[in-house]
Amino acid sequence: MSHMKKLFGILLVAGLVAGSAVAKDDDVKGRIAPVGTLCMQGEECAAAPAPAAAAGPKSGKDVYGSFCTTCHGAGVMGAPKYGTAADWAPRIAKGKDTLYTHALNGFNAMPPKGMCAACTDDEIKGAVDYMIDHSK
């Protein structure tokens, strides 16, 4: 009978170990599972609703806060600092059209559209207007 108790004990421990190994395998599978899926047009998963589009154009303030502030907030590589009239006065004197052209096409160290490739021309112009209005 004592052999039966030992055998039962061994089987019990083996079952617990095996059970915890399965649980660990499930944990690992969950941690390494893909975050999303890719499906092609015509497949059932392609019928999922698309994410909602933006409500409308971004304001000059929003574009400035998301993109322009990186350089214009600190004057990086000669960028005129937001809110500093002395930096902006000579640029404003050249006219808005010149500032728009520089902002849209890039100028000196500034890349085209200030790295906001998804921004429309009007959104970029709005950001220029926002910076000018707050730097006089």
Relevant terms:
136 residues, mainly alpha, Cytochrome Bc1 Complex, Chain D, domain 2, 5 helices
Secondary-structure topology with pairs:
Blueprint: H1 2-32, H2 60-72, H3 85-93, H4 96-105, H5 121-133
Helix pairs in contact: 2-5, 4-5
Descriptive notes:
There is one protein chain. With 136 residues, the chain is mostly helical. It has a domain at 60-133: Cytochrome c-like domain (Cytochrome Bc1 Complex, Chain D, domain 2), CATH 1.10.760.10. It is 56% helix and 0% strand. The chain has five helices and no strands. The protein has helices at 2-32, 60-72, 85-93, 96-105, 121-133. The radius of gyration is 30 Å and the shape is elongated.
Helical run tally: 5
- In CATH, the homologous superfamily of the domain at 60-133 goes by the name Cytochrome c-like domain
Could you tell me the strand content as a percent range?
under 5%
Helix content: 55-70%
* Poorly predicted residue ranges: none
* Structure summary, number of beta strands: 0
| Alpha carbon gyration radius | 30 Å
> Mind telling me the CATH class of the domain at 60-133?
Mainly Alpha
| Shape annotation | elongated
SS-based class? mainly alpha
What is this structure, in a nutshell?
It is built from 5 helices and no strands. The chain is mostly helical. The N and C termini lie far apart (96 Å).
